[in-house]
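Journal club prep, notes for RB
We'll compare a predicted complex against what the paper describes. Inputs for the 4'-deoxy-4'-aminopyridoxal-5'-phosphate case:
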Amino acid sequence: MTDDNSRALYDRALSVMPGGVNSAVRAAIEPYPFFVQKGDRGHVIDADGNRYIDWVMGLGPLLLGHNLPESVQAGIQQKASEGPMYGTPTEIEVDLAEFVVRHVPSVEKIRFVNSGTEATTSAVRLARGYTGRNKIVVMQGGYHGAQESTLVEGDADDRAPSSAGIPQAFAEHTLPVPFNDEDAMREVFEEHGEDIAAVLTEPILGNHGIVYPEDGYHEFVREITTEYGALHIFDEVITGFRVGGLGCAQSKFGVTPDLTTFGKIIGGGFPVGAIGGRAEIIEHFTPAGDVFQAGTFSGHPVTMAAGLETLQFAAENDVYAHVNDLGEQLRSGLTDIVADQAPSYTVTGTDSMFKVIFTREGPGRDELDGQCPAGSRQDPDCPRYEFSPKNAGDVKAAETDRWRRIFWGQMKEQGVFLSQNQFECQFVSYGHIKADVEDTLEAYKEAL
Ligand code: PMP
């Protein structure tokens, strides 16, 4: 594969942009990332004309793939050509808000913003303003964007900001606990319950491998937050309008949080975020309430059109059946390949999310060993993904160097674009077809 153009572009980028990129993860491909020229259904073509099957899909927003259906294109183009934005309301904001309220169980009212980060930042401020409390509980290995209150590492007893430039005071108010650990959650509530404003969690950890909730975990969090008068916030920036279809992950799990944050798909590929929830809580945002929230670009007509047309297209076509079916084919095919060629790895994911991680360690495995001994894949009574990691620690234990070799080296060389590191997940779009799955499985076979 020639990559002269990408290399030259990266050289230019390095002289004018920190690390040569506008978002950290993009620089992770070594020795340099490929620069994309354009998309084509489920593929991208780079600046040197190389074609890749694309399972990154913009890191999640592109539910429909790179070629947008005509209705979506027309909606975007019309709004852009009429003058992109105004600083005063437009009808399409109301249309998209009504669509979301109709489909997502917990959302009675919604405020649109411009990124997932802005959504979680505003949700945390809202929870603090609403409850009059300071502390938030987050999951270790969870990700809620580049915001001060959630860039915290450690545990509830010993924690610190995970980035330079964040005062320690932020970490004092953030309590990280392991995902799927009811005892740890109970302990932080016993110690800090009176000052906990919210528990903020992704329904499925999508930024640390893919970690699935154990049965009853979200119900437990729902109950304990209610008991202590804290808010339960689902960060559905990744899972929203992907897992569980138009009802989002909360409908799949049958749990109704107080607030939900959105991003990615809800803007149809344009910059977006949103905070939805119970009307009585959302009404605390200014100007209705006293929790300040504002943004020049919020509810941008082009974004609203892209989001609304995308979701309407998904409502009227077989989008979720298609992406979930290909997702299952990928996970199933990968499970067989891993069993044959790399039995120490694990296939994770659900709906249109998938990932291979380089470990089979962790309590998820220990707990199931009795019922599902190694090789139980062949046992039809055994859950297919029996060795799912239970929390971020399990995934972190994996061999990250191997990711670099196998996936940036061999998979990319075979024309398959996978997520840039071991932790981010991979996405199926409506633009992908069965041949993409088959070619990808062949490439995995070769690489593993
Ligand atoms: N929350 C979650 C769960 C995310 O995955 C992300 C980004 N991947 C964010 C928040 C931040 O969103 P953005 O990058 O749009 O700021």
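Talking point for the session: Residues 319-341 form the longest helix (23 residues).
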